[in-house]
Amino acid sequence: MNFTGKVLLADDEPHIRKFIGLVLKRLGQPAIFEAANGQEAVAQFKLHHPDLVLLDVNMPVMDGVQALAQIREADPEAVVIMLTSLTNRQTVEQCAALGALDYVRKDMPRDEMIAHLGQIVEDCFGTGDAAVAPAGNSVP
Amino acid sequence: MNPSAESSKPDLQGRKVLIVDDDRLNLRILAGILKPEGFVVIEAESGEKALAAYEEFRPDLVLLDVVMAGINGFETCRKLKERYGDELAPVIFITAKAEADDIVQGLAVGGVDYLPKPFRTREALARLRVHLQNRLLNEQQRKLVTQLSAANAAKNKLLGMVAHDLRNPLASVRGLAEFLRDDGQAGKLTADQIDLVENIYTVSQSMLEMVNELLDVSVIEAGELKIQPKPVALAALLKQSVTLNNINAAKKGSHIELRIDGLPPHLNIDGPKIKQVIDNLLSNAIKFSPPNSCVMLEAGRRQSDCTVAVLDNGPGIPAGEKDKLFKDFGRTSVTPTAGEKSTGLGLAICRRIVEAHGGVIRADNRAGGGCTFTFSLPEAA
Lengths: 140, 381
What we know:
The complex is a heterodimer of chains A (140) and B (381).
Chain A: E1 6-10, H1 14-25, E2 31-35, H2 38-48, E3 52-56, H3 64-74, E4 80-84, H4 89-97, E5 102-105, H5 110-125
Parallel strand pairs in A: 1-2, 1-3, 3-4, 4-5
Chain B: H1 3-7, E1 16-20, H2 24-34, E2 40-44, H3 47-57, E3 61-65, H4 73-84, E4 91-95, H5 100-108, E5 113-116, H6 121-182, H7 191-221, E6 230-232, H8 234-251, E7 255-261, E8 267-269, H9 271-288, E9 294-302, E10 305-311, H10 346-356, E11 360-365, E12 371-378
Parallel strand pairs in B: 1-2, 1-3, 3-4, 4-5, 7-9
Antiparallel strand pairs in B: 6-8, 9-10, 10-12, 11-12
Helix pairs in contact in B: 3-4, 6-7, 7-10, 8-9, 9-10
């Protein structure tokens, strides 16, 4: 798989961003933008128009549910995957109703997460060449 | 027995006694017995008035005449019981006719005892004290139970919060260790370095399992275990579980063999929860069996139930420790054979999941050695 799209990764915990960032790099050479809360996520989204948004639910300043609503308002086509620590059914359903495509549990074993995100990327963007061209200013 | 010595017991002083009798003379006699002993006496001349007086004064004990105009003593007692349930103060009937039938009827509607007329002072007081003391103990116990359940709820909440907050960092430690171990990006590691990273990975993995179990317990204890039954192919679930657990088993040179005999194609169960039970039983079987063992997983049908059994080659359950097995933190004296960890919570979680499905889980030592853990799931559930 060679995914080269733009990904917005929003989570208030730096170690999670590190970990999921590494998972994403297993899918190809994505351009990754990071945000540490919902407000930053919305701002980053409007600035970079990422192909894929990974959005934590519990974040300070603005939580993921609110951020999801604003992102989908800015772009009704936005592909948003929620990052959850617990499968709180209510939250998951709420996010699905707001247009989130899927959710990923942050405590998933690494290989499962690679497979899961890989599947999502493949479903949305195809296996490689069809992926959107990367933007320049990626955060390593 | 010395009544004056007994009356010096401080805890019964000032206790409120409601006397109900349509005979003023009886009221006066009883009040005359009770007041000098330090009881607070409330009088009512009918069943109707007694109901009102009970509501107003909340007595600690009721002396209730049986034969009265208006609603009689039994009816009054029934009404009181209806209104106050288990909170109702002990009701002692005053009865002239001590026929067995009357008394039985009185006890059946919620009375605790009876006093035959004419009253014998010492006997009356002795019975009263016994019931008041019981009442007091009951109250204390109820208070204690309330306090304990509040403390338990607080503990569960804390447990849940701690476990929840530990989970993400642990998952990251585990995941990052994996990337360090086999991601080219981080550079090539020496054998010693790989060994260290391997340790970090293994420890964080087992900590994560423990934290997840704590979280499960806090969820279950808070009454939030919700079973969401859907038609599930149990056979496929078992196969998945065997494949997964065989990876760990292989590290000890052991393996799991699956034998399925006549399962229905679909069973209405909560798949992920039942898989958790199967995983738990299998990982226990591997943990407690010596290296190079063969663990059997057998599934079949017994009458209207589906049964799943895990047969290990461990030392079995020591005599007298069986009741510990399915309790929280109920570790037995048996230890894993290769230094594996256990929280003592896994089986307690399994029991609750199986019971929530209307099933039963049990453990039996086999005559030839080893232990069999069996759980059943009703097909109709």
